[in-house]
Design a protein that fits this description.
Nucleotidyltransferase, domain 5, about 20% strand, alpha/beta, about 140 residues, 3 helices, two-stranded parallel ribbon
Amino acid sequence: MLSFKRHKDRYQMQSPLTSLIDIVFLLLIYFLLTTNFIVEEGITIKLPDAKASAPQIKQEITVTVDEEGRAYMADQEIPLDQLYTRIKDMIGKDKDRLVIIKADKTVILNKAVKVMDIAKAAGASRLSLATEKGL
């Protein structure tokens, strides 16, 4: 009588996916909790790109100029004739305080320069034009 050997099924290695999924979710939760979500609320503008931009650390005065040339401080529109007194009051005795102009990249250059002139006339010795870091 002929007899054939039975082929035994080989056991395949099975990795425990449950613990792997647990570790992935724990890492995801860790990174979500430790990440700083910085949200700047305000007027939506598109800043021009610059390769050599650096973040500013000191307290500064920020003036935003939208695409139509309107000036804003702290999300409040300020007419250009009142901008001088507002900046002058904010600078006070600290002549070294930085004034940052955030102008939309589509704004006419003359309107952004006019805001810079008003800030300079109000006593700002340090002016900066905000840009986004380009590639």
